[in-house]
Structure formats: C-alpha cells, structure tokens
Design brief:
This protein is an all-alpha fold and 85 residues long. The chain is built from four helices and no strands. Helix 1 packs parallel to helix 3 and helix 2 runs antiparallel to helix 3.
Length: 85
C-alpha cells in the first residue's frame, strides 16, 4: 500500500469521525484507530515503503484525528503536544 492510499483511508476515517457523536466510546475508538494508523506508519517506514517524513505526516494526521474526536482543536494545545511528542 502506498502513501496516497493511506492518505485516502485516513481522510475517510477522519470524515467518519466527524459525523459520529463524540461520546466516550467514540473517543476510545478514535484513539485506537489513531494508534493503529501510527503503528502502520512505523511498520511501513521500517519496511522502507515510505520515508521518515511521510511517516511523520501520517502520525500527525492520526494525532489530528484523535484530537478532533476529543474536541481538541485549539492550536495552542496542538503546539504543546508537538513539543512533547
């Protein structure tokens, strides 16, 4: 699977999360999906299928999906998370 296909999959997942209600089970599902996406990015990077920069972009997109599910879209919070991660 190449980077473009994963981008499409991630975008579809993000859209589905936007439609779903943001209750606790939904947030948990979003976290699990984001973690799976990050794991996929790491595995693809380790296998040489994508570059480090592409993996970082996928992981950032997964973080954004998780933040959106939590209702955390504050730019200041995101900046702090990026500094910590």
């Amino acid at each position: 699977m190449n980077f473009n296909k994963l981008t499409i999959i991630a975008s579809a997942a993000a859209l589905s999360l936007g439609v779903a209600a943001c209750d606790s089970p939904t947030e948990e599902a979003a976290e699990e999906q984001a973690e799976a996406m990050e794991d996929t990015a790491d595995a693809m990077e380790d296998a040489g299928e994508i570059t480090d920069e592409q993996a970082d972009a996928m992981e950032a997109q997964a973080d954004d999906m998780e933040d959106a599910a939590e209702g955390d879209t504050d730019a200041m919070t995101e900046g702090v998370e990026e500094a910590v991660n």
